TrEMBL record:
Name of the protein described by the UniProt record: UDP-glucose 4-epimerase
SUPFAM superfamilies named in the record: NAD(P)-binding Rossmann-fold domains (SSF51735)
Gene Ontology BP annotations: galactose catabolic process via UDP-galactose, Leloir pathway
Family: Belongs to the NAD(P)-dependent epimerase/dehydratase family.
Domain NAD-dependent epimerase/dehydratase, first and last residues per copy: 3-240
Required cofactor(s): NAD(+)
GO molecular function, one term: UDP-glucose 4-epimerase activity
Amino acid sequence: MTWLVTGGAGYIGAHVVSVMREAGERVVVLDDLSSGDPARIPGTPLVVGSVLDAGLVAETLRGHDVRGIVHIAAKKQVEESVRRPLHYYRENVEALRVLLEAATEAGVESFIFSSSAAVYGAPDVDTVVEDTECRPVNPYGTTKLVGEWLVRDVAAATGLRYVNLRYFNVAGAVDPALTDRGVSNLVPMVFQRLSERRPPLVFGDDYDTPDGTCVRDFIHVGDIASAHLAAAQALAAGRVDALTANIGRGEGVSVREMVSTIREVTGTADQSWAEPVVEPRRPGDPARVVASADTIRDALGWQARYGVREMVASAWAGWTARGARVPSGERE
């Protein structure tokens, strides 16, 4: 059985490709390389192009005899989605429609959809379970929820087996070569500020949380990857037909706590210039979103292995492997 991984040359996608290939799965990648890098997936067949290109998608599915799809390719910046909602609907919803249409025509049997905790919006609960009401508060989250509906409805009409995986806040790296090179996520964003000898930014400290900053469930990208492998194996074996599940650790960490851990790992905890600076809230940021991971544990036997410090330390190893360093000493 061959799996197509869309966005497989990106940060998360490359980790998924790596763990699937290590498990003996046959994989082909479709990536437009807007944020991906072929060097992340050596030895893996790569088709360069967009999921929006229906002809290319159909040709790829036929040419590689694809029977399962892991759809990771998407736009994912909350703030950008607020400014450019039509762009996000095109890239995240229309692209998925194109992919599902091609998959149906090609007889693809299994589908894994990369969803997000953003589908929940700003839930007024300590821990989010999968049947918590979904009320997204930004266009990014809405596109992911619509994506889940698309997958569900196509499956009901065609018999497609599927798993929707709702990622929480992804960090870390299993291999420095696969590290997150973008700066839209919290950890690399703080790394960049520190490497430039500038204080980290905290967006809002007046939320209804213990320290006033947003609380999130951070999950190591290696755990994200292993969840995809578990889902792929369960679908291929016919053990799962329809599943929507959170991928998280079930532990909330505030932004201020995460910045503190980053400063410890990077050796800037005692540097006054590295004290975080509070900026206004960003549009579309909920106060607290923490996962219950009981569903995926019960259905797939999966659970997270890595802790927060391991996430930060592995991400920092990847960051410094690219030649970045934090200046030592106090600011003059």
